[in-house]
Amino acid sequence: MIYLDHAAATPVSQKVLQAMKPYFTDDFFNPSAAYLPAKKVAADYETAKGTIAHAIGAKANDLVITGGATEANNLAFTALETELKLHSGPHRSLPSPRGSRAISRAAALRNTPSWSVNSVLYLETEHDSIRAVAQKYSGIAIKVLPNGLVDLKDLKSKITDETILISMSLVNNEIGTIQPLAEVSALVKNIRIDRLKRGIETPIYLHSDASQALNLLDINVARLGVDMMTLNAAKIYGPKGVGALYVSHDVKLQPISVGGGQEQGLRSGTENVPGVIGFAEAVCEAKEHLNGNRKKYANFKKILLSELENYELINKKHSLDNFVVLCYNGIDAERLIYLLEEQNIYVATGAACAASKGKKSHVLKAIGLSDSQIAGSLRLTLGETNSEEQIHEAARIINSVVSSEKERLRNG
Ligand code: PLP
């Protein structure tokens, strides 16, 4: 098998698996229990959280562990609920309904929030877990340029005094584009200063989904200037269903589940100890191999681009080297996927969740591809399971499958 879909899922590494194993069996205790072995498990859990946090320049207390990136993304958006609560509480006066204020007085009284369209801004190329939650808060999309980078002009034009949250992934999950987050956070800081000067109390936060980033980027939340950041163990050779939200001290969130009060009351439920231990190990491995992996995937990408034939490269610039998006215009990429699977090569057309619903890629559309280009686009995402030999072999098989498909089309 040649697996070229590492953006959809990565296998759990052997080291991760070994690190997790004892916490399924011998060290199975509930971290909240009162006896000593449980306290040791609780301490290991905190240490693991500290390791994950340290990798992004944060502390264990800054992280809320979640059941994956979708949950972390949903949690980040509860910053808006906090604003609603603040302004609709019995002892706080409501903000004046100037323009399209975040919550109208009538809506707050009815306890049915109606958000201003400018309360939430999100990049139009975001993962569905952001797009869906942003829509819940009547968010509006920020455009991207044809190279996949945020259109800063469009972003600036859409920020108003009502804007509370901007959500922009660090690395796009379909084309691997790395967004200039530091530039966006500098803009957000200036807006804060300006609001302060004008006596406007509405906060503005920058959230970034970094699910696809930890494998190849050295992330530091302070350097990037983000207020919240989503991490995902499943994309870095850790277990599925484990994620984290980094939350800076200024941001106040609302619980996504209530109960035992775990994770600072924001995500109640018995801690997933093996998952978090595995997540920490995966983070360490990613950090350790960062530079080696960058070189490895740059080399793999170079091989693919030189050996593949008659394609158009979609993500030419500003993207991680483990993302190679190719367009075979006039050919149905969905068919290519099945034909390649017959040859034991696993690739994708875009995000796995969109593919399973038969949806056309909103990302490729956003960067200006025509319908026929979108229909002919393949996403290859490289990873740990690949060797250089496999990459040569994949190029050879893809060439042959594409040319026989062209032949088939020519012959009607
Ligand atoms: N965000 C991004 C950028 C992703 O690539 C993914 C997974 O594909 C998710 C969020 C959702 O992650 P999960 O399914 O683990 O919740």
Can you tell me about this structure?
This protein has 412 residues and is α/β, with parallel strands linked by helices. The chain folds into two domains: 2-11 and 290-400, Aspartate Aminotransferase, domain 1 (Alpha-Beta Complex), CATH 3.90.1150.10; 14-287, Aspartate Aminotransferase, domain 2 (3-Layer(aba) Sandwich), CATH 3.40.640. The chain is built from 16 helices and twelve strands. The chain has a seven-stranded mixed beta sheet with strand order 2-8-7-6-5-3-4, with helices on both faces. Helix 1 runs antiparallel to helix 10, helix 2 packs parallel to helix 10 (273-288) and helix 11 (290-307) packs parallel to helix 16. The radius of gyration is 23 Å and the shape is globular. Bound molecules: pyridoxal-5'-phosphate (PLP). Pyridoxal-5'-phosphate binds at residues 68-70, 127, 129, 169, 173, 209, 211-212, 232, 234, 243.
- Distance, first to last CA: 31 Å
Main sheet record? 7 strands, mixed
Bound molecules: pyridoxal-5'-phosphate
Order of helices and strands: EHHEHHHEHEHEHEHEEHHEEHEHHHEH
| Oligomer class | single chain
Descriptive key words:
three-stranded antiparallel β-sheet; binds pyridoxal-5'-phosphate; Aspartate Aminotransferase, domain 2; 412 residues; Aspartate Aminotransferase, domain 1; alpha/beta; 41% helix
Provide the fold topology.
Blueprint lengths: L1 E2 L10 H7 L15 H20 L7 E4 L2 H8 L2 H10 L16 H6 L9 E4 L4 H9 L3 E3 L9 H7 L6 E3 L13 H17 L7 E5 L11 H4 L3 E5 L10 E5 L25 H16 L1 H18 L4 E2 L9 E5 L5 H10 L2 E2 L5 H5 L5 H5 L4 H5 L1 E5 L6 H23 L2
Parallel strand pairs: 1-11, 3-4, 3-5, 5-6, 6-7
Antiparallel strand pairs: 2-8, 7-8, 9-10, 10-12
Helix pairs in contact: 1-10, 2-10, 11-16
Bound molecules: pyridoxal-5'-phosphate (PLP).
